[in-house]
Amino acid sequence: MSTDSATIRKFLKEFFGYDSFKSEQEDIIRHLVAGGNAFVLMPTGGGKSLCYQLPALMMEGTAIVISPLIALMKNQVDAIRGFVSGNEGIAHFLNSSLNKFQIAAVREDLLKGVTKLLYVAPESLTKEENMELLREIKISFYAVDEAHCISEWGHDFRPEYRNIRTLVNEIGVAPIIALTATATPKVQSDILKNLGMQDAKVFKSSFNRPNLYYEVRDKVEPEKDIIRYIRQNPGKSGIIYCLSRKKVEELAQLLCINGIKALPYHAGLDAKTRAENQDSFLNEEADVIVATIAFGMGIDKPDVRFVIHYDIPKSIEGYYQETGRAGRDNLEGRCITYYSYKDIQKLEKFMQGKPLSEQEIGKQLLGETVAYAESGECRRKLLLNYFGEVYPQENCGCCDNCLNPKPRFDGQWEMWLMINLILSLPEKFKLEHLANILAGVDNSLIKSYHHDRLEEFGMGSKHDAKFWCMVIHQGLILHLLDKEIDSYGLIFVTPEGKEFYENPRPVMLIEDRTFSEGVDDDEDIPAAGGGGGGDQTLLAMLKDLRKDVARKKGLQPWVIFSEPALEDMSIMYPLTIDELKNCQGVGEGKARKFGAEFLSLIAKYVEENEIVRPEDFVVKSMASRSEGKIFVIQSIDRQMALEDIAQARGLSMDELLGEIEAIVDAGTRLNLDYYIEENLDEEVVQELYDYFRNEAVSGSLEDAMNALSDDYEPLEIRLVRIKFISEVAN
After folding, report:
1. Which of 30, 71, 381, 585 is the most buried (most CB within 10 A)?
2. pLDDT of 418 over the 90 cut
3. How many domains does the chain have?
């Protein structure tokens, strides 16, 4: 058929209503219609789907679109049917979600030649009955969508994708168009080789998304930070990615509690709920979707204004594709990622059960992610370099590192030393190994190669290995160094690097950023953070008030409110009982018992000093009572013996008391009188109670044990402390 520009543009206007193509779309379509194989590398939002949808509508026969996500096929089919009204059969999907009557309808339309696009999962393609059906029809071409799934080095490897070429040969050979939004040179090579289409014409669009802002934040109190950000951007649509289903559920619930319309999305939800939540997000009934990476592939929502990664992604490719879902309308798109090295260690631990080859690949990809997160270099430059594209500008003006640049230094000597080391070695090595040699790290791998005997060993020991990794990463960006594609991760010196080695010149490097350890998701995260940083004037006034209240009530000051509670008040300026309850260690009982005077003082202080109250700090927390804690509370209410509760929970007595203390310290009142009266001497109870009322300078169990353990049993001290805090403090 004709592939001239006028004909193709006529079909574009007729089917899709557009007057012109984006980027290389027209060249790709012309090449495919003419019978050529094509490899399309185009960023999210670049218009990949049109590159196979329009040729399918133009050409004789049916285009087979191989797609990895069954959940999205219906959306894509509905979209095509929307463009071509009055012909429901023009597009179909064939997968495990169909019943036998629906499959019969698809079969009938295919055999009649009505269907121009058939979406299938690679698993469906392997079924003999489907292969037999496809052998009976004329296939115009095969479109392999999300083609990065073919490569083990891709961020979403699917083993069944590697069989596509074999299936094509068995069903019937036709042109192939492979499409992906992310592929490093290594992944690109892998895809072409596996599909047996090394002759394919490669169409590669720029990976630069100028409208996206990139930022990596220290993962300290991320929930509070996320809520603050969303409240500052009301009504804007966003996606938050988490690595675990549990975190997706928790975060979605926390956002809802804080008045944000959010829904969860992950593979553990039933198909109906997933579809409903996805539709609610697309239809703007929900502002935020909290999801695992199962969400987003092929979602055509142009006005996503922010993409937040609660957890650092496992690869740069995954990160790029997920952030690419922001600002597809070329308007604002903010990409915020929370990072702590603790998350990296957790991901490394998850890899341990996998085959060694997978572990090796996973570690390499994760190492690239760490380098991106910790780098002080322009993030746009880092991303584009990863995909083999040069970004010439020094400052993009649209990432955290460019807006808040760290000072640069002349790293001429450091770069020369690294290149000298690489050139002196008879074999090629990975980045970490080279860094360890110069830093003088004496590990087993260094010794096995006798690299501890090299003249260069420890020559750069005034810096640590992390610094030398940074030098290598920036050498890669400057194209003085490169990585081998086939043996991924092995560093070599480029011709430009050899020229630099012979004629050194100044090279401006920038040191990596530093991050805190971050939070551990397995630990309870307090509703609001203490640790200083609040209004010191207000804090002093609150301490004075606590002292007065304690004196009037004949109690120790710590019984009224703890130091962390006062620090939270000085940060959050709570004005209501509900807001006060968000401070650490302040439960309902304590807030109502002692809160009025403190709230009055804070309200007066806020008014007199014209303080704009940071309401976004006041984050409502979910009740953090696990089923185990609820069981303990209910069992004590039923006056069960503590030994029986411990046995039922599979705990030692010491562990059970620890749980009870955590419940009471968090502000819940428990009545253990029934157990204390039966097991403790009345006189001992009174003496210990008087100690906590009159002598204890803090509520600390450790302080009490140090002061009392010579005269009383640990069990006695702990039980009476629980009784005292429940009755007086809570």
Report:
1. 381
2. yes
3. 5
